[in-house]
Design a protein that fits this description.
The chain has eight helices and eleven strands. It is an alpha+beta fold. The strands form two sheets. It has an eight-stranded antiparallel beta sheet. The protein has a three-stranded antiparallel beta sheet with strand order 1-3-2. The longest helix is centred in the middle third of the chain and has 41 residues. It is elongated.
Length: about 270
């Protein structure tokens, strides 16, 4: 055969592994032009290069092998065009998902940078927030076990993956329970979501407005003194509390082994 190439040579020329070429042969996608009957060596020709180039092109676009195989079996132009159009839609969806991930990572970076640079540790301050979209489960949370099980319920109900949770989880604590010194008697858990187009029966909103905030150098809120500090500030400035307190962990033991870098936050909506 003119211009005969071994499987190893073809693999090197096309930046593929021998294992991949053997698999293509096995599924009938790309078979050698000749097999030596004496030693079963596979040989390929230059006439097959464009065939393999097309496979590599479609694979680089993420087209599944079964669809590529079907295209080569039928070789209909309209089918090929439909294949590309269908994959174009899938690519657009992936781009949208990556943009959401990028936004989530960007928000997380900005939050940690802002917290690290803050001079307000253990000092109340006022911050304005726009509407924040959340998935919220109204349920009494009194232990870490309650929290984890509730998060799984949000995940399963809303068809989310756990990757969205990192840095996005919060709990709410009614002011009347704080006044009763029930500091761990949370009444809901929520996950902040960056994509407002997510649909779920658990979807809710933390309303826009002013919040009295306090950064706490702990992985979890555990000291009544934090709320005493906030209430003193609210009273001193003649502010009115308009909703439940919000607690969020920003930096914990899974991000650093230095307890001095732990950080949580309390937010209380006010007028």
């Amino acid at each position: 055969m003119k211009d005969r190439f071994t499987i190893g040579e073809i693999a090197k020329l096309h930046n593929l592994s021998v294992k991949t070429l053997r698999y293509y042969d096995q599924i009938g996608l790309f078979k050698p032009a000749e097999i030596d009957p004496n030693n079963n060596y596979r040989y390929y020709s230059t006439e097959q290069f464009e065939h393999l180039n097309t496979i590599n092109y479609l694979r680089s676009l993420g087209v599944p092998l079964k669809d590529i195989k079907k295209q080569f079996e039928e070789r209909q132009l309209d089918d090929f065009l439909e294949l590309l159009k269908r994959h174009q839609v899938e690519i657009a969806q992936k781009i949208s998902e990556l943009q959401q991930i990028h936004q989530r990572v960007d928000n997380r970076i900005n939050e940690i940078d802002l917290a690290k640079q803050s001079n307000n540790i253990h000092q109340p301050f006022i911050r304005y927030y726009n509407d924040r979209h959340i998935l919220q489960l109204n349920h009494d949370i009194q232990s870490q076990s309650d929290l984890e099980l509730s998060l799984r319920k949000i995940e399963n109900t809303s068809h989310l993956t756990s990757s969205i949770f990192i840095g996005s989880v919060g709990v709410t604590l009614p002011i009347e329970r704080i006044n009763q010194m029930k500091y761990n008697a949370y009444n809901s858990v929520f996950i902040a979501i960056d994509d407002e187009h997510i649909t779920s029966e658990l979807k809710s909103t933390l309303p826009a407005g002013k919040y009295v905030c306090l950064y706490c150098q702990d992985a979890r809120i555990h000291s009544p003194s934090y709320y005493e500090c906030l209430f003193e500030y609210i009273k001193k400035h003649q502010l009115t509390i308009t909703g439940d307190a919000i607690e969020r962990t920003i930096i914990d033991q899974f991000m650093t082994n230095n307890p001095e870098e732990y950080l949580s936050e309390i937010q209380i909506p006010i007028l």
